[in-house]
Design goal:
Layout (H helix, E strand, L loop, with lengths): L13 E5 L9 E7 L7 H4 L7 E6 L4 E5 L2 E6 L3 E2 L2 E2 L32 E13 L6 E9 L4 E2 L9 E2 L7 E9 L6 E8 L11 E6 L5 E5 L14 H7 L19 E6 L5 E5 L8 E6 L5 E6 L2 E3 L2 E7 L2 E16 L5 E13 H9 L4 H4 E4 L7 E3 L12 E5 L4 H7 L1 H8 L5 E2 L1 E7 L4 E6 L25 H4 L3 E8 L15 E2 L1 E7 L24 E7 L4 E6 L8 E6 L4 E7 L5 E11 L2 E9 L4 H4 L4 H7 L8 E9 L7
Antiparallel strand pairs: 1-2, 2-3, 3-4, 5-39, 6-7, 8-9, 9-12, 10-11, 12-13, 14-15, 15-16, 16-17, 18-19, 19-21, 20-27, 21-22, 22-23, 23-32, 24-26, 25-26, 28-29, 29-30, 30-31, 30-32, 33-34, 34-35, 35-36, 37-38, 38-39
Helix pairs in contact: 5-6
Length: about 650
């Protein structure tokens, strides 16, 4: 199996993908991606750039080649109707005009239009007709993760860093689809009303569920210990309750850090739910397995865990059981490998846990905390959440608070029970139904994942060897999905899609010594994946799409990787300071297929601050910093019009 592990020699200029069911109407027998070059000029470095192509060979016919073109649907702040893309609103739908203060008391001036579009769900709604009356109407749900910066209320001061200083927003875009070309055009834009769930907190990646809804994750949950006595001002801006703690009627930290599901009806109206039953974490996303019940979570941050949810019923995430993984290492080299064991945390429904929140449960109702070992206390080292301090703590669970701990302090409770919380920067997840595989992005492998770097952490489950500079470039892990698994207490797990193992499949590496040409600002190999983040798998193409969020590539890349033979093709590069987000392979929509992908925070100062002045100041000044919502394609059944 080691032959499938990616190495530098596996980069192929021509990446061949046999069999594409989505194109089978045309008799297509082979699809090839021809790699893009890395950007070489300043003009190529400041825009979405691709010289890649897709080639389809039809059975018995000549090859047809098409440039892999990136198309913009809209940019942050674009006006469609009376709505601006990415506009940050309060619960009444009015634009938020002032940010929460930063640690130095600086306040930014609005209105705010987020430059960070993240997850997309392009969906066809049955019964909703477009101008083309023969096809279902297409809608795009896009959520925006955060805003990078905005002018200071005091014009004499520099712009304000706005990460975690604003509530966030989600848009619904109505799209028209050209019958002949398949090209998409926005014809309507609305904000998705988050009033029923008390607003939206830092939504990161997401997915389209098998039942045609959008499922996003709220990332870097606010530390409920910290915000028990302090107001959560970003969400107070949304609720219009400035200066109030949860006990005083302000924003409650336990309302944030959950998966958010959005359903769209035939008239374009939306219905929103937060799934408290899935726990509270730094959700990257929740990837749903083919049984339509089992989900895996990307828990972003450092010192985080891997989690699984098994719903009670198909197509319904409102009740189920949470499990946390324990890493049983079997190999330390080349990114490592392990068997996975699953610890049952608890079972609950949305209504049960939301009820606890409404009744005012606090962190201090769940745990007692000590800074030193004491009778009845267990050592815990796990990411504490936004505004919290991640360090060794000793926790004592209060009587009868197991359910509150499992679903509102999910990571801490998992660590308290003995699950592994040493993972670093766990990002996107996706799966292949065809091969029964789960793929997990570990953007940076560092800290507690490295052998000998465990520090004061009480557990040392992950002990990876190798060059730390290679491991810092990250990896994508592959897990086998199996039936008949039991939890650590010997109870059967009611799922046939349980991850039983993990091994590094795609790994990055430091830049080879002596390379002075292209990629001159990169510290990880320009021709290998560095710091993978967004993942989506296409069973039709038998291909894993990987979007980077790298501090080691100046221009982040979008890749196509074929696990069957290790072939890798670079599809595109993002502008400096940007990352590729919102990956979705939307197949067979009224006869066309799209690779959705957004460009998030181009030219972001924080992402460029370590680079030399010619990049950080001069080149950045040429970047349009508005985020982009867009797609690659459209792809269709070549040689005939789609049905």
């Amino acid at each position: 199996m080691r032959k499938h592990r990616f190495s530098g020699a596996a980069l192929a200029a021509l990446c061949i993908f046999p069999s594409l069911p989505a194109l089978s109407d045309s008799g297509a027998s082979r699809v090839e991606f021809i790699s893009s070059a890395a950007p070489a000029t300043e003009e190529e470095m400041i825009v979405p750039f691709s010289s890649a192509s897709i080639v389809v060979t039809h059975a018995g016919t000549a090859r047809q080649k098409q440039p892999l073109q990136y198309r913009t649907l809209l940019r942050s702040g674009d006006t469609i109707g009376d709505m601006q893309a990415g506009r940050v609103n309060d619960r009444d739908g009015a634009p938020v005009m002032l940010s929460a203060p930063d640690k130095n008391g600086n306040i930014a001036q609005g209105p705010f239009y987020s430059w960070s579009p993240d997850a997309n769900s392009l969906l066809a709604v049955h019964g909703a007709k477009s101008r083309n009356k023969e096809a279902n109407r297409l809608f795009l749900v896009t959520h925006f993760e955060y805003h990078t910066e905005a002018p200071n209320l005091d014009p004499a001061k520099p712009p304000v860093d706005l990460y975690a200083k604003l509530p966030m927003t989600m848009n619904l875009t109505a799209l028209d689809q050209d019958r002949k070309s398949g090209e998409l055009a926005p014809v309507g834009l609305a904000g998705v009303d988050m009033g029923a769930v008390n607003g939206l907190w830092i939504p990161c990646a997401g997915t389209l569920t098998p039942w045609n809804s959008h499922l996003g994750g709220e990332e870097y949950e606010p530390d409920a210990r910290h915000f028990e006595r302090k107001p959560l001002e970003p969400m107070n801006l949304y609720l219009e309750t400035p200066g109030k703690t949860a006990a005083e009627g302000g924003a409650n930290p336990y309302d944030y850090g959950h998966p958010v599901e959005v359903k769209v009806d035939a008239k374009g109206k939306t219905r929103v739910a937060k799934h408290y039953a899935m726990g509270r974490l730094a959700f990257e996303l929740a990837d749903i397995m083919p049984d339509r019940r089992t989900a895996y979570y990307g828990d972003d941050g450092r010192d985080v865990g891997l989690f699984m949810f098994v719903a009670d019923r198909k197509d319904d995430l409102s009740a189920g059981t949470i499990y946390a993984a324990r890493w049983r290492q079997t190999e330390a080299a080349r990114g490592g490998a392990a068997k996975l064991e699953w610890m049952r945390l608890g079972h609950a429904s949305d209504n049960e846990i939301a009820g606890l929140v409404r009744r005012g449960v606090r962190f201090s109702d769940i745990f007692d905390v000590s800074d030193r070992a004491a009778e009845g206390y267990r050592p815990v080292y796990a990411y504490a959440g936004t505004a919290g301090e991640t360090k060794l703590a000793y926790l004592k669970l209060k009587p009868g608070m197991e359910k509150a701990a499992a679903f509102l302090e999910t990571r801490r409770y998992a660590a308290w029970l003995g699950a592994t919380t040493e993972f670093t920067k766990m990002e996107g997840q996706t799966h292949s139904a065809r091969h029964r595989k789960l793929y997990t992005a570990m953007s940076y492998i560092e800290g507690g994942m490295l052998d000998g770097r465990n520090g004061e952490r009480p557990r040392d489950d992950i002990r990876l060897g190798g060059d730390p500079e290679d491991l810092a470039c990250g990896a994508v892990y592959e897990s086998n999905l199996a039936a008949g698994q039991k939890d650590t207490e010997g109870r059967p797990i009611r799922s046939a899609w349980v991850a039983a193992s993990a091994r590094a499949l795609v790994t990055g590496a430091r830049k080879p010594a002596g390379r002075t040409g292209y990629g001159r600002y990169d510290t990880c190999d320009t021709d290998r994946v560095a710091n993978p983040d967004n993942l989506k798998y296409s069973d039709a193409l038998d291909t894993l799409f990987i979007g980077e969020d790298s501090g080691h590539h100046l221009n982040n890349f979008l890749w196509a990787y074929r696990p069957a033979d290790g072939k890798l093709a670079r599809l595109a590069s993002a502008p400096i300071g940007a990352e590729w987000t919102g990956l979705q392979v939307a197949e067979g929509l009224n006869g066309y297929t799209y690779l959705m992908s957004n460009v998030q925070h181009p030219g972001a100062e924080k992402d460029l601050e370590k680079y030399p002045e010619e990049v950080r100041l001069n080149l950045r000044a040429r970047v349009d910093q508005r985020g982009i919502v867009g797609y690659f394609g459209p792809f269709r059944a070549w040689g005939r019009n789609p049905d």
